[in-house]
Amino acid sequence: MKKLKVKGNHVILSLVCLVLGYMIAFSYHLTQEENQKKTKKVYGKQYEETLALRNELIDQEETNRDLEKELKRKQDKVLENEKSLSKEDQINFNLAEDAEKYRKFLGKVKVKGKGVKITLDDGDYNPDEKNVNNYLVHEFHVFKVINELYISGASAVAINGQRLSSHSYIVCNGPVITVDGYQHPAPFVITAIGDPDVLSSAINLTGGVKDQLVNDNIVFSLEQDEIVLDPILGN
Amino acid sequence: MDKPKKVSFTLIAVIVGFMIAIQFQTIKKPVERDTRDIWQLREDLLKEKELQSGLLKEIRSNEEKLSAYESKRKQSKEEVLKETLNELKAEAGLTDITGPGIILKIEPVYEEIKLGEPVTATVSPDLLKRLQNELNMYGAKQVSIDGQRVINSTVIRDINKETKIDGHAIKDLPIEIHVVTDSLKNAEKLYNHMQVSKSAEEFFIDNMRLTVSQPKPSVTVPAYENPIRVLNMNTAGDDKGGNT
Amino acid sequence: MWLPIMGMIVGIFLGLLTDIRIPEEYSNYLSIAVLAALDTLFGGIRAHLQNIYDEKVFVSGFFFNILLAASLAFLGVHLGVDLYLAAVFAFGVRLFQNIAVIRRILLTKWSTNQQKTEKN
């Protein structure tokens, strides 16, 4: 009799366990399917399109990088030729020198020189400040700094490494600034080649750009440095 | 009894504190992901494609120069150098450029001026700079303001209440702004944009009227009159460490 | 008595310093583990105040509860049921109970101490 009881108990127990196991497995399977369906169906088509576009963009960027390298190689060879030609006589020397001058002016070559590095950053998040614009860096802040730099004789100016030209433009869209089509987030590092003392004193002038920025709760820092500016892409 | 118990308890407390800190950190900064949406991607792709065609053009022109340099004749080498220099000068703004574009005119709003009062409206440098920024945004490639060519180093500033561009004072309205773009299509796009731009209102607030001409197939911008001087800058050597 | 609290502060400090981060998907498990750990900790403090503290129970309970809570959460995610809520309830209730007991004991201790000093 003992044996039967135990057996009876065991049978019921194993039956219960079987059902439980089945329910667990079924539930698991169901949840998996739901999760898959959720991520695939709602975003399915658009996700694939975006993925394809993203891959195409990456490929295109790679191609452009290779092209840039090739361009640099060819440009260097042209420069070598000009140099060897310039050694031959004075006229050619002057021509080559002028060419180099304009290349530096236009941003076709990498340039370096003494200058200043200015960093603008959004003021710390102030929960009491209702208007969020009151401590974010906007395009007119960047404008002011750049204009002051040019006025004080900067030979070349760049924002976050991107060199500016006569047809550059700055647009403020929300948290990023678009310069010549390229987006940059804060903090904004403005580098300029010029006389460091003249540039610094112009910016630090009382009531000048620096004070106006600090008034607007913009975090501002200026340091004199040896500046290296990359050439403008695609030029 | 106390010491080993305290040690293990303390150890556990340390672990708990550690876990709390990790949890806090994890919640604080979410991982940055590329969340550009489909439209931003398309725009970026378009930009990269344009960049590619620009690069290809440059490579081709450099290849032509190289093949000229390869030739043994000295004269062709000199010609290439001269040609290169002229191209650079033109790009820098030292020559007149003619091409498709638009002409903008800034004139005082005559109706607002009472009879007998002198016309005192002057364009502020700010207004001009914003206009220039906007023109550049929508395809302006060469610009001249009141007959003064705008180049990389051009500054528009207020000196003694006079607006000066590179030393030239903008005194009498009306003045003309000539804009040259890459193509007639771009000139039309620029024209369309300026029609609906807010700049006209900004000028109106200052008692000036901004008018935009129809896109013209040939607009001329004059050359920059002064010599271009480049100080303080040197060509940076190659990354390989060559001494220039 | 204050050594364990110092220990926890040191642990928090270390954690903030080393800047370790867990991938976002697992932060859920970690939060429930933290709850379990806190509950065990206060349970240990209570046991100590009631002088029934057993080290083995404490340490084993610590790791066991954490594992139990995390696995409950894990199971819940895969079954599509918010099972971690069960852990939240259980540990939350125990946490409140333990803290209440600790508070009661401390208050009686403090009042008897006061009485003793008054007598003297």
Q: Could you state the order of secondary-structure elements of chain A as H and E?
A: HHEHEEEEEEHHE
Structural class by secondary-structure content of chain A: alpha+beta
Which regions of chain B contain 5 or more consecutive residues with pLDDT less than 50?
Answer: 239-244
Oligomerization: heterotrimer
Terminal residue distance of chain B: 78 Å
CATH topology of one domain in chain B: the name is Alpha-Beta Plaits
Beta strand count of chain B:
10
Number of helices of chain A: 5
CATH architecture of one domain in chain B: 2-Layer Sandwich
Largest sheet of chain B: 6 strands, antiparallel
Overall pLDDT of chain A: 82
- The geometry of chain B reads as extended
CATH superfamily of one domain in chain A: Protein of unknown function DUF881
Protein model, in words:
The complex is a heterotrimer of chains A (235), B (244) and C (120). Chain A is built from five helices and eight strands. By secondary structure, chain A is α+β, with helices and mostly antiparallel strands. The longest helix of chain A has 85 residues, at 2-86. The radius of gyration of chain A is 32 Å and the shape is elongated. The mean pLDDT of chain A is 82. In chain B, the strands form two sheets. In chain B, strands 1, 2, 3, 7, 8 and 9 form a six-stranded antiparallel β-sheet that branches. A three-stranded antiparallel β-sheet of chain B has the order 4-5-6, with helices on one face. Mean pLDDT of chain B is 82; it is low at 239-244. With 120 residues, chain C is mainly α. Chain C has one domain. The model of chain C has no long low-confidence stretch (mean pLDDT 85). The chains are: A alpha+beta (235), B alpha+beta (244), C mainly alpha (120). At the A-B interface, helix 1, helix 2, strand 1 and helix 3 of A face helix 2, helix 3, helix 4 and strand 10 of B.
Helices and strands in order:
The complex is a heterotrimer of chains A (235), B (244) and C (120).
Chain A: H1 2-86, H2 90-106, E1 111-121, H3 139-151, E2 156-159, E3 162-163, E4 170-173, E5 176-179, E6 182-185, E7 188-193, H4 196-204, H5 209-215, E8 219-229
Antiparallel strand pairs in A: 1-7, 1-8, 2-3, 2-7, 4-5, 5-6
Helix pairs in contact in A: 1-2
Chain B: H1 2-28, H2 38-70, H3 74-92, E1 97-108, H4 125-137, E2 142-145, E3 148-149, E4 156-159, E5 162-165, E6 168-169, E7 175-180, H5 184-195, H6 199-205, E8 208-212, E9 216-221, E10 234-235
Antiparallel strand pairs in B: 1-7, 1-8, 1-9, 2-3, 2-7, 4-5, 5-6
Helix pairs in contact in B: 2-3
Chain C: H1 2-18, H2 27-49, H3 55-79, H4 84-119
